[in-house]
Specification:
By secondary structure, the protein is mainly alpha-helical. The chain has a domain of 79 residues: Winged helix-like DNA-binding domain superfamily/Winged helix DNA-binding domain (Arc Repressor Mutant, subunit A, Orthogonal Bundle). The chain has six helices and two strands, in the order H-H-H-H-E-E-H-H. The longest helix has 14 residues. It is globular. The two termini are 26 Å apart.
Length: 152
């Protein structure tokens, strides 16, 4: 996906000056993030995405087309040479912290205490630690210690 200096202004942005709103305009629907999640977990083919998500074929076709057009996924020939597959681009891989933060929020707030759920682990099988935003000096950040600086 082009950097902001290379992207032409889109008159349909929800809030053109807000990075959160622009990101949601690009990947803010339920299915797009689940496709990205599954691509991060190794899904490559249309069939794999459909099997993992349960998404209707027409919706999956639309999301794969949009995610490819916006530069989150690219298509390449599969190693077998018989079909095309989808792979994450740099922009798609850059969504990893977003997916991780959503996962960790869900672990804390979307399950009853003791309710079973999947866990993200590192290459050694160790659960991934909580992400905590920090300032340049290492101080934890939150809503009480940050503010949005509007552009003029």
């Amino acid at each position: 996906m082009p950097r902001s200096t290379e992207r032409a202004p889109d008159p349909d942005w929800t809030d053109a000056a807000c990075p959160v709103a622009r990101t949601l305009d690009l990947v803010g629907d339920r299915w797009s993030l689940l496709v990205i999640r599954d691509a991060m977990d190794g899904a490559r083919s249309f069939t794999e995405f459909q099997r993992r998500t349960g998404i209707a074929r027409n919706i999956l076709t639309d999301r794969l087309r949009k995610l490819t057009a916006h530069g989150f996924l690219t298509q390449r020939t599969a190693p077998s040479g018989r079909r095309r597959e989808y792979v994450l681009t740099e922009a798609g891989r850059d969504l990893f912290p977003v997916i991780l933060t959503l996962r960790q929020w869900g672990e804390r707030h979307a399950f009853a205490p003791g309710e079973a759920h999947s866990t993200l682990v590192d290459e050694h099988g160790t659960p991934v630690p909580e992400l905590t935003p920090t300032s340049a000096d290492g101080t934890p950040l939150g809503t009480g210690t940050t503010q949005v600086r509007k552009v003029h």
